[in-house]
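re the bet — no i am not wrong, look at it urself. input seq straight from the record:
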Amino acid sequence: MKVLVTGGIGYLGRNICYALSDCGIEAVVIDHVDDADKYTLPGCHFYKADITDKESISKILDEHPDIDFVIHNAMVSAVAKSVNHPYDFYYQNVVTSMELFHLLKNRGIKNIIYASTASIYDDAPGYVVTERSPLKPRSPFGRSKYITEMILKDFCNAYGMRCITLRYFNPIGADPQTRHELPHKAGSNILEKLVKILKYEERQFVISGDDWDTRDGTCIRDYIHVRDLAMANCKAVLNFDKAFERAGKDYTNYLSLNIGSGVDVTVKEFIIAFENVTQEKINTVMGKRREGDIGGSYANIQLAKRTIDWKPEYSIEDAIFDVLKYYEL
């Protein structure tokens, strides 16, 4: 079994590649990083290429005619940044993705696993969302992922393709095996900033509003360890055919799955967890709400459990510990 992974050098992509290798799945990895010679991924074939370069992608597919699946993870992300740079987000996340899907269709590669986001959901009662919850993306980033989901659904209906879309919630943490081949990122913005405070690179953590309708006034999020997110991709590959059978008659060629921990955590609660793990007090100040932000959401993950035989194994404390281990803090 062989899988093409786009965006395989980024924070999510490389952890997906680690997981694929650990599961014995051969990966062909493409990314457009400039210093490609610095990067190694165990058990993977790495190519420096941009998904917009049809000639390069075609040559890679020629070299690997036995590719069965594509995990499309190449994207630009960040809700706040997308508000001021909508063109970049729509071009990179929508236009280039559609061209890639068209190329794959023409090459007869019809099984896609697509990295989407929980940012497409509307506010839900109690903040818990299922895959059937109303959608209302509030930022160019969220809308770009929603539009691409619709494009994929249309491609599946028109061209005989099949897709499992994984709607990621808030990834955090680091590879539990502390593989150091690539530059590190702590994940979701909250953990990145808390680590910087611990390293004395920043002095305080700004909480984006305390007037949300939550139990302590701060936003609710669903933080998922990046290893659990990566394993969801492996499980989607390994159970691809069975997933549609298990999902039921309404899901013949397109299936969306929530990939989160299934646990709701407020910003204040996350900070307390970080303080408990590190035994360090974090200096916090209250700021304004971020444009494009929502009060919160967390995942109902029952459909993912049932269809791809996946469940999260790690806690937020595990994620914090793995990041501290990486930085030797």
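see?? DSSP finds eleven helices and 15 strands in the chain. told u. also The radius of gyration is 19 Å. so pay up
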